[in-house]
TrEMBL record:
<dbReference type="InterPro" id="IPR013249">
    <property type="entry name" value="RNA_pol_sigma70_r4_t2"/>
</dbReference>
<feature type="domain" description="RNA polymerase sigma factor 70 region 4 type 2">
    <location>
        <begin position="108"/>
        <end position="159"/>
    </location>
</feature>
<dbReference type="GO" id="GO:0006352">
    <property type="term" value="P:DNA-templated transcription initiation"/>
</dbReference>
<dbReference type="InterPro" id="IPR013325">
    <property type="entry name" value="RNA_pol_sigma_r2"/>
</dbReference>
<dbReference type="Pfam" id="PF08281">
    <property type="entry name" value="Sigma70_r4_2"/>
</dbReference>
<keyword id="KW-0805">Transcription regulation</keyword>
<protein>
    <submittedName>
        <fullName>RNA polymerase sigma factor</fullName>
    </submittedName>
</protein>
<keyword id="KW-0731">Sigma factor</keyword>
<dbReference type="InterPro" id="IPR039425">
    <property type="entry name" value="RNA_pol_sigma-70-like"/>
</dbReference>
<dbReference type="InterPro" id="IPR036388">
    <property type="entry name" value="WH-like_DNA-bd_sf"/>
</dbReference>
<dbReference type="InterPro" id="IPR007627">
    <property type="entry name" value="RNA_pol_sigma70_r2"/>
</dbReference>
<dbReference type="GO" id="GO:0016987">
    <property type="term" value="F:sigma factor activity"/>
</dbReference>
<comment type="similarity">
    <text>Belongs to the sigma-70 factor family. ECF subfamily.</text>
</comment>
<dbReference type="InterPro" id="IPR013324">
    <property type="entry name" value="RNA_pol_sigma_r3/r4-like"/>
</dbReference>
<keyword id="KW-0804">Transcription</keyword>
<dbReference type="InterPro" id="IPR014284">
    <property type="entry name" value="RNA_pol_sigma-70_dom"/>
</dbReference>
<dbReference type="Pfam" id="PF04542">
    <property type="entry name" value="Sigma70_r2"/>
</dbReference>
Length: 170
Protein backbone atom coordinates (compact mmCIF):
# COMPACT_ATOMS: atom_id res chain seq x y z
CA UNK A 1 0.00 0.00 0.00
CA UNK A 2 1.40 3.39 -0.96
CA UNK A 3 1.67 6.28 1.50
CA UNK A 4 -1.16 8.07 -0.33
CA UNK A 5 -3.47 5.03 -0.14
CA UNK A 6 -2.59 4.52 3.51
CA UNK A 7 -3.32 8.18 4.29
CA UNK A 8 -6.66 7.97 2.47
CA UNK A 9 -7.68 4.85 4.42
CA UNK A 10 -6.42 6.41 7.64
CA UNK A 11 -8.58 9.51 7.12
CA UNK A 12 -11.60 7.37 6.24
CA UNK A 13 -11.34 5.25 9.42
CA UNK A 14 -10.17 8.00 11.81
CA UNK A 15 -13.71 9.40 12.26
CA UNK A 16 -14.68 6.27 14.19
CA UNK A 17 -11.76 6.69 16.61
CA UNK A 18 -12.99 9.92 18.24
CA UNK A 19 -15.80 8.28 20.29
CA UNK A 20 -13.36 5.63 21.53
CA UNK A 21 -10.89 8.35 22.54
CA UNK A 22 -13.68 10.15 24.40
CA UNK A 23 -14.56 6.96 26.30
CA UNK A 24 -10.94 6.52 27.33
CA UNK A 25 -10.13 10.10 28.32
CA UNK A 26 -13.56 11.53 29.22
CA UNK A 27 -12.30 14.92 28.08
CA UNK A 28 -12.67 16.48 24.63
CA UNK A 29 -9.23 18.08 24.49
CA UNK A 30 -7.47 14.98 25.80
CA UNK A 31 -9.44 12.89 23.29
CA UNK A 32 -8.25 15.14 20.45
CA UNK A 33 -4.66 14.83 21.66
CA UNK A 34 -4.97 11.06 21.91
CA UNK A 35 -6.48 10.87 18.42
CA UNK A 36 -3.66 13.01 17.03
CA UNK A 37 -0.99 10.89 18.76
CA UNK A 38 -2.63 7.72 17.44
CA UNK A 39 -2.77 8.95 13.85
CA UNK A 40 0.82 10.19 14.04
CA UNK A 41 2.04 6.83 15.37
CA UNK A 42 0.02 4.98 12.73
CA UNK A 43 1.43 7.09 9.92
CA UNK A 44 5.03 6.89 11.13
CA UNK A 45 4.71 3.12 11.60
CA UNK A 46 2.75 2.44 8.41
CA UNK A 47 5.47 0.03 7.28
CA UNK A 48 4.46 -2.25 10.20
CA UNK A 49 0.85 -2.42 8.99
CA UNK A 50 0.14 -5.62 7.09
CA UNK A 51 -1.87 -4.87 3.97
CA UNK A 52 -5.22 -6.66 3.95
CA UNK A 53 -5.60 -6.76 7.74
CA UNK A 54 -8.16 -4.74 9.69
CA UNK A 55 -6.88 -1.14 9.75
CA UNK A 56 -9.58 -0.06 12.19
CA UNK A 57 -8.58 -2.72 14.74
CA UNK A 58 -4.91 -1.80 14.29
CA UNK A 59 -5.72 1.86 15.02
CA UNK A 60 -7.85 0.99 18.05
CA UNK A 61 -4.95 -1.05 19.44
CA UNK A 62 -2.52 1.82 18.88
CA UNK A 63 -4.94 4.22 20.59
CA UNK A 64 -5.50 1.95 23.58
CA UNK A 65 -1.77 1.32 24.02
CA UNK A 66 -0.98 5.04 23.67
CA UNK A 67 -3.59 5.87 26.31
CA UNK A 68 -2.20 3.25 28.71
CA UNK A 69 1.38 4.42 28.17
CA UNK A 70 0.42 8.07 28.76
CA UNK A 71 -1.54 7.13 31.89
CA UNK A 72 1.36 5.13 33.32
CA UNK A 73 3.76 7.97 32.54
CA UNK A 74 1.47 10.41 34.38
CA UNK A 75 1.27 8.09 37.42
CA UNK A 76 5.06 7.66 37.51
CA UNK A 77 5.51 11.42 37.26
CA UNK A 78 3.23 11.95 40.27
CA UNK A 79 4.88 9.28 42.41
CA UNK A 80 7.54 10.30 44.88
CA UNK A 81 10.14 7.72 45.88
CA UNK A 82 11.31 8.08 49.46
CA UNK A 83 15.02 7.22 49.69
CA UNK A 84 15.09 6.80 53.46
CA UNK A 85 15.86 3.41 55.04
CA UNK A 86 12.27 2.13 54.86
CA UNK A 87 11.89 3.01 51.11
CA UNK A 88 8.19 3.89 51.02
CA UNK A 89 6.48 4.76 47.77
CA UNK A 90 4.34 7.78 48.41
CA UNK A 91 1.89 9.35 46.02
CA UNK A 92 2.86 13.00 45.98
CA UNK A 93 -0.67 14.16 45.22
CA UNK A 94 -1.84 12.80 48.60
CA UNK A 95 -0.92 15.67 50.90
CA UNK A 96 -3.73 15.39 53.42
CA UNK A 97 -4.55 13.00 56.20
CA UNK A 98 -7.83 11.18 56.31
CA UNK A 99 -10.09 11.23 59.34
CA UNK A 100 -10.46 7.56 60.35
CA UNK A 101 -13.41 8.40 62.61
CA UNK A 102 -15.54 9.10 59.56
CA UNK A 103 -14.65 5.66 58.19
CA UNK A 104 -15.83 4.00 61.40
CA UNK A 105 -19.24 5.68 61.11
CA UNK A 106 -19.49 4.75 57.44
CA UNK A 107 -18.55 1.14 58.12
CA UNK A 108 -21.16 0.93 60.85
CA UNK A 109 -23.82 2.25 58.46
CA UNK A 110 -22.71 -0.17 55.72
CA UNK A 111 -22.92 -3.11 58.12
CA UNK A 112 -26.41 -2.07 59.27
CA UNK A 113 -27.55 -1.66 55.65
CA UNK A 114 -26.26 -5.11 54.68
CA UNK A 115 -27.85 -6.67 57.77
CA UNK A 116 -31.21 -5.11 56.85
CA UNK A 117 -31.24 -6.80 53.42
CA UNK A 118 -33.63 -9.68 52.85
CA UNK A 119 -31.76 -13.00 53.24
CA UNK A 120 -32.55 -13.94 49.62
CA UNK A 121 -30.42 -10.97 48.50
CA UNK A 122 -27.96 -10.76 51.37
CA UNK A 123 -26.56 -14.30 51.07
CA UNK A 124 -25.61 -14.17 47.34
CA UNK A 125 -24.34 -10.60 47.72
CA UNK A 126 -22.06 -11.50 50.64
CA UNK A 127 -20.80 -14.61 48.83
CA UNK A 128 -19.95 -12.50 45.78
CA UNK A 129 -18.33 -9.90 48.04
CA UNK A 130 -16.16 -12.62 49.56
CA UNK A 131 -14.91 -13.62 46.13
CA UNK A 132 -17.22 -16.38 44.95
CA UNK A 133 -17.97 -16.42 41.22
CA UNK A 134 -21.58 -16.34 40.00
CA UNK A 135 -21.52 -19.99 38.95
CA UNK A 136 -20.10 -21.03 42.34
CA UNK A 137 -22.85 -19.15 44.18
CA UNK A 138 -25.48 -20.73 41.93
CA UNK A 139 -24.12 -24.20 42.64
CA UNK A 140 -23.85 -23.66 46.42
CA UNK A 141 -27.35 -22.17 46.72
CA UNK A 142 -28.83 -24.50 44.08
CA UNK A 143 -30.42 -21.65 42.10
CA UNK A 144 -30.02 -20.57 38.46
CA UNK A 145 -27.10 -18.26 37.65
CA UNK A 146 -29.52 -15.62 36.32
CA UNK A 147 -31.24 -15.55 39.70
CA UNK A 148 -27.87 -15.08 41.41
CA UNK A 149 -27.02 -12.14 39.15
CA UNK A 150 -30.45 -10.60 39.66
CA UNK A 151 -30.31 -10.92 43.46
CA UNK A 152 -26.83 -9.39 43.63
CA UNK A 153 -28.00 -6.54 41.38
CA UNK A 154 -31.03 -5.90 43.60
CA UNK A 155 -28.86 -6.01 46.75
CA UNK A 156 -26.47 -3.46 45.26
CA UNK A 157 -29.36 -1.23 44.24
CA UNK A 158 -30.94 -1.38 47.71
CA UNK A 159 -27.58 -0.70 49.38
CA UNK A 160 -26.98 2.23 47.07
CA UNK A 161 -30.35 3.69 48.05
CA UNK A 162 -29.78 3.08 51.78
CA UNK A 163 -26.26 4.57 51.68
CA UNK A 164 -27.06 7.55 49.44
CA UNK A 165 -25.71 9.88 52.13
CA UNK A 166 -22.21 8.65 51.22
CA UNK A 167 -22.58 9.23 47.48
CA UNK A 168 -20.33 12.31 47.58
CA UNK A 169 -17.35 10.16 48.66
CA UNK A 170 -14.99 8.83 45.95
Amino acid sequence: MTALEFTYNLNRVSKTLKPFAMRLTRDSEDANDLLQDTLLKAFTNRDKYTDGTNLKAWLYTIMKNTFITNYQRMIRKNTFIDTTDNLHYLNSSENSTYNEGYTAFAMEDITKAIDSLDQAYKVPFMMHFRGFKYHEIAAKLDIPIGTVKNRIHIARKELKDMLRVYSHMD
